[in-house]
Amino acid sequence: MILEAGTTVTLRVRRETPPYGWFVGVGEDGGPDILLPYGEAVVRRPQPGDEADLFLFHDDKGRLTATQRAPLIRLGEMARLAVADFHPRFGYFLEMGIGRQLLLPLKQLPEERRNVWPQTGDELHVVMKHDKEGRMLARLAKIEDFEQVVFRAPGSWKGEWKEAWVTDVFRDGVFVLVEGGVLGYGALGFVHESAMSRPLRIGEKFSARVTQIREDGRVTLSMRQPKETGRMEDADRILAFLRERPGGGMPYSDETPADIIQKRFGLSKSAFKRALGKLMKDGLVTQKASWTYLEEASGTDTAEKAGETSRN
């Protein structure tokens, strides 16, 4: 039997050696002695001659060590692990359920896009592997890893709001795992940049609406409300912005480039134009050249029109 870090194996307790713990191994004398420290015997105190299922890891001095603690991930497996800490030289340390953490090296993340790197508390989908010395390491899960465990999204999901985790970030959007609930591990999905209400980072959990069930069982999602509901909310946001501006004007209009609209309001160009169209139809704003202004009206008229906007 090959004894490797990251695996759970059945070993025999050979002897107890105070003040350290118990030495265990394969059978009575097969292979090396491995220490089960007193602090790692969290299930029960073993006796010499007992056999026990133990998880193997390397201690701080690089020695193979055993524990009775149950890990959240094992060698070759994929799991969703929370970010516990970050070191700018080494990478992210992930909680793995045994009182110590699993390292996700920096090279697993896009160096040129640090704004999408995880934050403490985010949850990353990773696979455990070994480095060249046989120590446990994590790598970000790939599509082929997910394909082994995900299910095809049911048609009943269309239009529903779901919780999802960002698994990878691209220039035009993000890949996600949509929470499966009682159905299973989850379904794969994609959120296009134009359907985001704000930028997303790897490992972030967020809510989104299923807009399409694809033939391959994956889903397309949007963080925005349906057009009619979203139009009213976006119109209210723009109206509030104008009311805070000196003179009730802003240098944004139908002619403003989409990237500026996205950066300033978190809206796509089409959503911005729909909201402006509603405000102009309701007589609340007007456009002059490349600027948008609150309509000059009495306080009563403006209040009445604002109330109509909220009701419509």
UniProtKB/TrEMBL annotation:
Gene3D superfamilies: Nucleic acid-binding proteins, Winged helix-like DNA-binding domain superfamily/Winged helix DNA-binding domain. InterPro entries: CvfB_fam (IPR014464), CvfB_S1_2nd (IPR048588), CvfB_S1_3rd (IPR048587), CvfB_S1_st (IPR039566), CvfB_WH (IPR040764), NA-bd_OB-fold (IPR012340), S1_domain (IPR003029), WH-like_DNA-bd_sf (IPR036388). It comes from the Bacteria. Residues 159-224 form the S1 motif domain. It holds the Pfam family CvfB_1st. Coiled coil: none annotated. One of its GO terms (molecular function) is nucleic acid binding. SUPFAM superfamilies: Nucleic acid-binding proteins (SSF50249). Belongs to the CvfB family. This is MarR family transcriptional regulator. The lineage of its organism: Bacteria, Bacillati, Bacillota, Bacilli, Bacillales.
